[in-house]
Design goal:
Blueprint lengths: L1 E2 H4 L7 H9 L5 E2 L4 H11 L3 E3 L19 E7 L2 E4 L1
Parallel strand pairs: 1-2, 3-4
Antiparallel strand pairs: 4-5
Length: 84
C-alpha cells in the first residue's frame, strides 16, 4: 500500500513497473490526506504501508503499525528516497 503522493515521486524509468504492480494488485494506492483512512484500509487488507510520515504515532488505535513487517518508512536523503 502506497500513498498517491509517493506515486508521483517514482522515477520515470520505474513508472511502468509501478503501474504493472498496481494493475496486478501487488500495490494498492490510497489518497494520503488521511493517515487514519490509510491505516484502516491497510488493516482490512493486512497490507504493508509505505509512507514518508511516521505513522507509529497512531499505534494506539492501530497497534500493528509499530511492526517492522507492516510499516516501512520512506526517507528523503539528498535527492534520493530510501527505505528505513
Amino acid at each position: 500500500m502506497i500513498g498517491t503522493d509517493l506515486v508521483d515521486l517514482v522515477e520515470y524509468d520505474e513508472q511502468e513497473l509501478l503501474e504493472r504492480a498496481v494493475q496486478e494488485g501487488l500495490i494498492v494506492t490510497v489518497p494520503s490526506a488521511s493517515p487514519q483512512a490509510v491505516l484502516s484500509v491497510a488493516q482490512q487488507l493486512n497490507a504493508v504501508v509505505v509512507s514518508m510520515d511516521d505513522l507509529r504515532r497512531l499505534r494506539l488505535p492501530y497497534p500493528w503499525v509499530a511492526e517492522k513487517e507492516r510499516f516501512v518508512k520512506l526517507a528523503r536523503v539528498e535527492r534520493h528516497r530510501v527505505f528505513t
